[in-house]
């Protein structure tokens, strides 16, 4: 529907600033970036370890072993688990995608939330996923 997509997911990472921290930061956040470039190599520079996996299940099995991690996947057969963070900035995946696409000002979700667009896209994807799995 949107062409190639970059998939990211981070789990158990304190990605909020200390004074704004919420408990929701410690559960997994799955993000989908349609039509963007791969940021896996950029992401690896923020972590002490990066391992590539051929399947989502293998990647998530490895992710479960780490207290903090970031998953990046430029396509369904290339998934990376980045672990042992080295001073990761807030909203790392969003920051890297915005920077790579030449729009670093779009990285701050509080300044550019685009909530209506995000809800519309989520509803479209949800409908496509549900109808595809009901066949």
Q: Which terms would index this structure?
A:
4 helices; 135 residues; alpha+beta; five-stranded antiparallel sheet
Strand order of the largest sheet: 2-1-4-5-3
Uncertain segments are none
Q: Helicity, in percent?
A: 25-40%
Q: DSSP helix count?
A: 4
Please give the alpha-carbon distance between the first and last residues: 18 Å
Radius of gyration: 15 Å
Oligomeric state, counting identical vs distinct chains: single chain
Structure in words:
- This protein is an alpha+beta fold and 135 residues long.
- 30% of the residues lie in helices and 26% in strands.
- The chain has a five-stranded antiparallel beta sheet with strand order 2-1-4-5-3.
- The two termini are 18 Å apart.
- The mean pLDDT is 80.
Give the arrangement of secondary structure elements.
Layout: E1 5-11, E2 29-34, H1 40-44, E3 47-53, H2 56-63, E4 69-75, E5 78-85, H3 92-100, H4 115-133
Antiparallel strand pairs: 1-2, 1-4, 3-5, 4-5
What's the short version?
By secondary structure, this protein is α+β, with helices and mostly antiparallel strands.
